[in-house]
Amino acid sequence: MLPQLPGAPDYDVSWRRGEFELWERELTSWCWDDVVAGEAFSDVEAMASVDKVVSDTFTIGTHRFCLWVFPNGNPNEAQYKGRVLSVYLVLTDLSRRPPDWLTCAVFSLQVENALDSRRRLEWHSCLTDNKFHKHLNNWGVHSLGSLSMLRDPQQGFLTSIAEGQEPDTLTVSAQVRLMSITFRVVFEHDLREHHHLGLVDFSTVAQLKLPFCCSLRDLIAALHEQFPEVLGDYREEAMDQTRVWCFNQPVVSGQALRPRKLLACEKSQRDRPLFGHLLCDGVDIDAYSFCQIYVENNSATNDRPLDLPFGDLATAKDLLTTPEGYVFVKLLQPAPGSRLEYVGKVRVEASSTDSLDMEDDSDSGQLAPSALYEAVARHTGWRCDELEMFREEIAPTVLSGLIPYHSSTKCAGLQPADIVVFTVRPHIPATPSLAGVLDPVFALLFERYAEARQLFDPDRLVPPTLEHVETLAEKLDIPKFRVRSAFRKCHEDALATLRYIMEGRHLGFICDSCGKTDFTGARFNCAVCSDYDLCAACNGKQSCTTWFLVSLMSLANLNAVLIMKTIKPCTPCARCYRFSMNTMASASDNMQQRAAAAITAAELRVQGDEQIARCANLM
Predict the structure, then answer these.
(1) How far apart are the C-alpha atoms of 288 and 308, rounded to whole Å?
(2) Alpha-carbon distance 184 to 292, whole Å?
(3) Which candidate in 82, 218, 393, 536 could, as Cys together with 522 as Cys, close a disulfide (CB 3.0–4.6 Å)?
(4) Rounded to whole angstroms, how far apart are CA atoms 560 and 583?
């Protein structure tokens, strides 16, 4: 059994299946099948003196493995000795490895059955037993089968090596594959070449494959080696100059895939494997062992944030200071161009205090709208009063309401890894309304829906595959493992899976009241506890014992009235509106302040209702 990913109730035990299916399409140079034939296994007296059978050594890449088979059970495990068959995969090249080495491999151990292959005994490694290191160079299973069953000729596990002989040979096999991580590498120039929603189309960026056990030093060295024209040659100081941000997608909140986590550690930890340390499986690394990273080099001029002074005015301290994150900035060019252009990024400064007081008014982790307006004005030539700013949201909302120059930091609620879109205010009274100015941005979402229509086309010569659906879902910020879970619920029918997704289901979320999963309609999220969700039906009839929760749910209903009044019920064209009262999470004890913040957030979103309703009527 594989461990369930926290916050993902539909993360079934086959979630790594996608990785194995991907491997089947690759070269097999990193995979090995090994077979150990134990002769005279049925002879109890002959085998009584045999402690261990060691297979021939086999090589995968630069790694050497063998199998240890204990025909009388592991002698160091009293409860198994003399009762079962114990089998272990052993890494043998220990003397050639550095002090902090780590090798990750997935493997299966099997006892073949000559009568019925479906009855063969199997044991598969999982996420907790695939790491080989200096303190543990072997993994396996204490009990692969009872000796009484394996030695019974009627069971079919014994075979004959020569015709006419009694069956006395037991065949133990192993399948081993080294694990690797495929990094999809995003540079600043990739962001500049992207003119669509989101930050980048991951299908177009460069890839870098490294062993699963690679360290931060290994990663940065490999990046410099493969991309010297962008990062330059690798030197030791590159560890401080090259920053690597990991894209992740919090499974609880349902946020978009953005570069939120800086991969950084103390110098003494730079040779420690990333996996299980800086990279979390299932959050930073997906079910296909893909990890998306944004790489910046503070010595490169075109990588510098917009809020830094121009040219040589930027000091070394400015360049070396590590921010908490970035807000990424786009500009919608005025008509007739009307193209979405990436402008740059603005730093979100880290907090200078460690205070955890919920009453603290510190703006750490947030950015004042005025700072963004001024940074964009300096780099584009437009005046601040000629610009208007919106936050890019996930489909089908697309954009938040207008965030004015004088909005407070708390009201705007800009967070690290947010994307903001600037438009140029029309000068002529006869120009289109604000909604008309933003039409080119909403048209980009319609292009995604057009892709879905093409997959539904009955005249397609080739029916859509799971890969087609996953690729489209990724563009709509739906994690691939959610799609795979839906694929199984739809009996592995890709077209039914696409329809299931486009019905507007909140994939992977569970109503904490009725327990319903993958529900449609509005989803209500607690303003304080981000892991508490309600479907629309439960939110409408929720009754709580405390006045505080009743007030929160009441505010949620108020916002639902404001937002849902122009949105029609979900149709197969779009994911339904994801409601969140994030501005209420500032943890003030004053309920009036909470109510004001929630209403303000709702009013900002209501301004985009016309476009949201259009999204809901596409198909």
Answers:
(1) 38
(2) 5
(3) 536
(4) 15
* Fold matches, 17-178 and 180-303: no
Question: CA torsion sign, 301 to 307 to 309 to 314?
Answer: negative
Residue 508: count of CB within 10 angstroms of its CB: 22
- What residue type is 579 in one-letter code? F
CB 594, CB 381: distance < 8 Å = no
- Burial track 204-223 (b if 16+ CB lie within 10 A, e otherwise): ebeebebbbbbbbbbbbbbb
| Helix/strand number for the chain, H first, E second | 19, 22
The single-letter DSSP state of residue 136 is B
Average confidence (pLDDT) over 320-324: 82
> Rounded to two decimals, what is the model's pTM?
0.70
Q: What does the pLDDT average to over 494-498?
A: 92
Q: What's residue 365's pLDDT?
A: 56
Rounded average pLDDT over 60-85: 87
Residue of 19 and 561 predicted with greater confidence: 19
Q: Match 């490895």 to its residue by tokens.
A: 97
**Beta partners for residue 328, in sequence order:** 345, 419
Report the alpha-carbon distance of residue 420 to residue 387 in Å, rounded: 12
Distances, alpha carbon 299 to alpha carbons 192, 311, 378, 512, in Å:
18, 12, 21, 49
Q: Which CATH architecture has domain 17-178?
A: Sandwich (2.60)
* Confidence class for position 166, pLDDT limits 50, 70, 90: confident
Chain segment 578-607, per-residue pLDDT in tens: 333 333 333 333 334 444 444 444 443 433
Strands 180-186 and 290-297: parallel
Question: Across the strands, what pairs with 123?
Answer: 109
Rounded Cα–Cα distance for residues 230 and 235 (Å)? 14
In whole numbers, what is the pLDDT of the chain averaged over residues?
Answer: 75
The CATH number of the structural domain formed by 180-303 is 3.10.20.90
Quote the pLDDT of residue 262. Answer: 94
The per-residue DSSP string of 488-500 comes to HHTTT-HHHHHHH
Residue recorded with tokens 């004890």 = 589
Q: How far apart are CA 522 and CA 560, in angstroms?
A: 8
- What pLDDT shows up at residue 240? 86
Alpha-carbon distance of 134 to 385, in angstroms, equals: 63
Rounded distance, CA 557 to CA 599, Å?
11
- How far apart (Å, rounded) are the C-alpha atoms in residues 223 and 242? 10
Q: What is the pLDDT of residues 370-408, one digit of tens each?
A: 999 999 999 999 999 999 999 999 877 889 999 999 999
What is the Cα–Cα distance from 469 to 454, expressed in whole angstroms? Answer: 11
Residue 34 tokens, joined:
């090994």
* CA 303/CA 150 separation, integer angstroms: 64
Across the strands, what pairs with 90? 66, 138
Of 180, 95, 109, 181, residue with least CA distance to 137 = 95
Burial class (CB in 10 A: 0-12, 13-18, 19+), 492: exposed
Helical axes 17-24 vs 480-489, angle rounded to 10°: 100
pLDDT, one tens digit per residue, over 408-419 is: 998 898 999 999
